[in-house]
Predict the structure.
Amino acid sequence: DGGGVESLDYEVIENFAYREEQALRGKLYVSYLLVVKWFFALLIGICTGLAAVLINIAVENFAGWKFSVTFDIIQKSYIAGFVVYVLINLALVFSSVYIITQFAPAAAGSGIPEIKGYLNGVDTHGILLFRTLVGKIFGSIGSVGGGLALGKEGPLVHTGACIASLLGQGGSTKYHINSRWFQVFRSDRDRRDLVTCGCAAGVAAAFRAPVGGVLFALEEVTSWWRSQLMWRVFFTSAVVAVVVRAAMGWCKSGKCGHFGSGGFIIWDISDGQEDYSFAELFPMAIIGVIGGLLGALFNQLTLYITTWRRNHLHKKGNRVKIIEACVVSILTSAISFGLPLLRKCSPCPDSDPTSGIECPRPPGMYGNYVNFFCSKDNEYNDLATIFFNTQDDAIRNLFSAKTINEYSSQSLLTFLVMFYALAVVTFGTAVPAGQFVPGIMIGSTYGRLVGMFVVKYYRKLNIEEGTYALLGAASFLGGSMRITVSLCVIMVEISNNLKFLPLIMLVLLISKAVGDAFNEGIYEEQAQLRGIPLLESRPKYEMRNMTAKEACGSGRVVSFPRVVKVSDVVSILRSNKHNGFPVIDHTRSGEPLVIGLVLRSHLLVILQSKVDFQHSPLPSDSRGGGRSIRHDSGEFAKPVSSKGICIDDINLSSDDLEMYIDLAPFLNPSPYIVPEDMSLTKVYNLFRQLGLRHLFVVPRPSRVLGLITRKDLLIED
Amino acid sequence: DGGGVESLDYEVIENFAYREEQALRGKLYVSYLLVVKWFFALLIGICTGLAAVLINIAVENFAGWKFSVTFDIIQKSYIAGFVVYVLINLALVFSSVYIITQFAPAAAGSGIPEIKGYLNGVDTHGILLFRTLVGKIFGSIGSVGGGLALGKEGPLVHTGACIASLLGQGGSTKYHINSRWFQVFRSDRDRRDLVTCGCAAGVAAAFRAPVGGVLFALEEVTSWWRSQLMWRVFFTSAVVAVVVRAAMGWCKSGKCGHFGSGGFIIWDISDGQEDYSFAELFPMAIIGVIGGLLGALFNQLTLYITTWRRNHLHKKGNRVKIIEACVVSILTSAISFGLPLLRKCSPCPDSDPTSGIECPRPPGMYGNYVNFFCSKDNEYNDLATIFFNTQDDAIRNLFSAKTINEYSSQSLLTFLVMFYALAVVTFGTAVPAGQFVPGIMIGSTYGRLVGMFVVKYYRKLNIEEGTYALLGAASFLGGSMRITVSLCVIMVEISNNLKFLPLIMLVLLISKAVGDAFNEGIYEEQAQLRGIPLLESRPKYEMRNMTAKEACGSGRVVSFPRVVKVSDVVSILRSNKHNGFPVIDHTRSGEPLVIGLVLRSHLLVILQSKVDFQHSPLPSDSRGGGRSIRHDSGEFAKPVSSKGICIDDINLSSDDLEMYIDLAPFLNPSPYIVPEDMSLTKVYNLFRQLGLRHLFVVPRPSRVLGLITRKDLLIED
Ligand SMILES: Nc1ncnc2c1ncn2[C@@H]1O[C@H](COP(=O)(O)OP(=O)(O)OP(=O)(O)O)[C@@H](O)[C@H]1O
Ligand SMILES: Nc1ncnc2c1ncn2[C@@H]1O[C@H](COP(=O)(O)OP(=O)(O)OP(=O)(O)O)[C@@H](O)[C@H]1O
Ligand SMILES: [Mg+2]
Ligand SMILES: [Mg+2]
């Protein structure tokens, strides 16, 4: 396990080539860099915004067209309608799963665990490729448009990250635009900031929540954060908000088909409940507990099912994956069409002209009170209102105010159970899938259920079931994802109502605490399952009693001398899988001295290019001058999400093998070091906070040459 | 300079006592700690919320009473009214400056630079004492109630931080509650988190902006951040919001005097401008530029004036400070009363019953259109509306919608110039003073001016001058403080309108960029002036070409042997001012070995208690057992914001001086180390990210005992 996973080099390798390059660059370069970074933030914002618009328009049009066709046909025959409905869904889901399995396997799932891993320092193969981006966008359109119990929001985060990374490297690796201009972002470290921007942009686009996007990137995804970056991330999110707003304005004129009326989720409940009494806090707390329990259960069930899928089903190849997704699609269609048929319709309530809500809703429109399989014209089917509908509309209906008693508790319970089951089963099929919207669906259903009881027993006038639905949604997401601040802000931004902030917080506090008692958050669990070794921000408790030496084991350290024979390099690289090696030289008096760390990837570049081979086994004193550098730091740059060269790819003649390499110009001269008996807690902090990949454990020093305190670091420009 | 400034020990000192204590504590202790931390977050929220309520009620009542008395008197005589007005203001300001100079000198100013320093690792003497808290609260009431050109928001941040720190140590140092319960928060490191919570609580209370509070603490104040902390900080802010809301609800019933109608700033403009055209972006950009210029000028002028004050005025003692504040108060009163007298009144506009705004405003009420020195009854004085008013009401009037053409450009210009001058002069007087509200006043004035031009030349119907005033406020704060994301969110939360987010961002982007071209933000400049050496999150550009050895200079390192004579300790501590010393032992074979770092403060505790003195110059092998620890880690804990013991306070007999101390149990056995030729950039990152105080520069190691990679740190619980 963890086969496709390698660490990223977030540390700056201050080798000779790097230092030469730095020396050539003046102070002006710093400003240039700044401008380029802001420009990229702008670009990322625009592109992510456009991608989100594309996905939304496509999904809304497919789904809208699907429902209007079905509604047309069921006027004549319910069976024909059912067949058409199933077939359209099947076609969409099939196209999605086909794209994913044949073309972009890394685009399956939500992508958030992988991006989280990337920003934590672990590279999962293929997650930031161009084909993954394409697969994610079109796969999402198919899977969401096809009515599966999953959302398009998680994939949008991955989409944003892909866009950011691809822009940063100047296009796809295949169609590489090799311009000097893009050389700025060639290290993992630079790309990290871009990917953070992309994540925030994705969330901002998904929920039209710029502040929520920044906080999500900050709280949930990224592992390192600087306040300069924050402003740039925020800028990106705001650009997204502007792009999306502009697109929506343009769509209002009817140019986007079905999109005009639905589209970007923003379940405005600014006309919701005005105030709340203290007595209401109790049912709200209950919502929190339910959310924690159901969320933790969801995590556990999806964990089992994903493990089972991996070990039994998905091993058998792509055909099984395709069949699986198609079966799930047919199941989903059958349930969402069939169950409302079994439900008796209810008579419309006395219409209230001020609320602007019609019953039944006029054909071809969005809204509450769907007339489906009803005998009379002024009746509606409450189960169809939520089940036989796009998810966005269903949520809008569940959140809606001034619709007290629209749903029967029986319908809500049926929906809750069935949709929960569907969401669990759908999780892990080979299509792009987000958990936000299904989570909101599930949560708002039981939230509204609790709300109905409150309306019944508290007998207060201004209680709105929609408000409880919102709290339910927050509680389920909190119980499953265990996100806190950003979820709060996202819920406030999508409901467009600042008043609910303390209530949402209360519910989240409880649901997260309850959920934490059972298991970890869904992203952490999925990351673990996929073999992505995330380093948490806190060291484990056991580390207090361990030392650095104990942690790194007792194996002999594989190291290189300064000047090394090519054949030795090859055999050492073949004999192990380590990615970094200490380089040991000798002082004039013959004592050994650690002069740095050389990376496997750099050694491979040197072996491949061969220009640095020399005949003499003596160091060619590169610092003394004379010799010009034969590499610029760009050659050592690793392409995004590719495995780079492998030792077996390199062909060396027997003459080559007899030559020598002086490693001094290529090594990182000062990796971070820790004394052998430092407690592992402190080692962990160092490793995690600085985002390292290698750390040398050395003997206690024999002398202290100087102390560095704050004063020594206060250098004026 | 920097005399009163010492670094804080944010590093965990893993000495013998600490490790013993850790060993005694089971895993349950971790849960206990968690509960205590949340409990404290709750407490901090409640207390800060109550403090904010107290300040607001007091200020509103003093100010409200002042204005109603003055309005009553000027019905008969303007001169008598003027005298009363000046005297009330003078009395309030005098009480404030008297409290500050005599009782709590550390409470002067806004306190944000000091708190920022604290969280960056620098302790300014006295900022977190109980007397500072008291001085801050009552001083704020006096200075804001007295009508000076300053605000109560900055001081509230300091108040929150004080409350947090005092709660953390269980009350004031003098009235120390020595309960085991509070031993959790005795290290600087633990208090750091509490103070962060306190800051966020302060902002949340000041602006009723919980999200803004969290982001302010995150972006502007704190230097280290973890996502667990974020949730706790957010909780604190939300508790504040609830407390404040409850208090306001209680006040609505009229129990708080004048507070009922005014009070907590929240300049709701949710009924403001609905939409904006692209053409409006140009004047908005101009607002941004003006904000950047005026903000940078403000920083520069206040820098000059504060330097001058420090070097010439405040040296002469407290009496001068008191006189100065009184002069400023009289000046402010004279201008704010006198200038509106010179202004001709304008006739009331045709009243619009839907807007609910009366002209002139009824006596004893808050609102637009103040009738002051007008000959007719249906006239109002536009300058008095903003000048002869509390700042909160003035801002509300400037932000107000549906009041187009209320102000003449002449009045706004006069007010802008005079208030700007007053704000500059007031800055740095010895009273608690925030810069938020004056900044909003200045900004909204020129914002409204620009808005008037837009209304005039763009001839669009739905343009509101109030919206431009809001953007102006944002631009000035951005140009002066250079805060970004949090300012955006705060502006959105106080205006209660999410729609303006992109506009505020645009304006802030421009004003910050323009301001940055001239100088640093006001908090950084003030911190520098006060000798608070903040370490920025980024290393300076010059550091790339420096090594660790170069930075720490060439002075001989002062170190201790493991077992040291008491007289030597005393003489070494007397001979220098260093705060940390390496301890050197010898191996069996006689080679030197660095065994750790001992802090001056710990040495002083040992010297004072004397229990560890021994007669023999041989190490008493403390690890081997037998000897029990004579200190618990609590004895080494430093009280908050006190200088601790000084070497001159310690009296030792000549017998004592002949004895020995074995330092082994007291030292930090593994301080972080860097090799001598590591580039200073990397050293800086290590020092800054981990919040260190001392760092050993050591020779390059001769061997590598092991490598630590990600795999080694993935330990399962
Ligand atoms: N040069 C080396 N000599 C000896 N042991 C090493 C060396 N490099 C790493 N190790 C040890 O071998 C184990 C695996 O190392 P490896 O380099 O494969 O790292 P890894 O954890 O897979 O990191 P990455 O994420 O970089 O692949 C680690 O536990 C580490 O202690
Ligand atoms: N034990 C020591 N021996 C020699 N030089 C030292 C020692 N400790 C510190 N120094 C050097 O002396 C200078 C001042 O050190 P000092 O201990 O006063 O620290 P400081 O910068 O004031 O830190 P603090 O903020 O802890 O007071 C620093 O530049 C440091 O390099
Ligand atoms: Mg590996
Ligand atoms: Mg000092």
Notes: Residues 622-627 of chain B have pLDDT under 50 and may be disordered. The pocket of adenosine-5'-triphosphate (ligand 2) is lined by residues A 707, 709-712; B 6-7, 552-553, 555, 557-558, 577-581, 693 (CB under 6 Å).
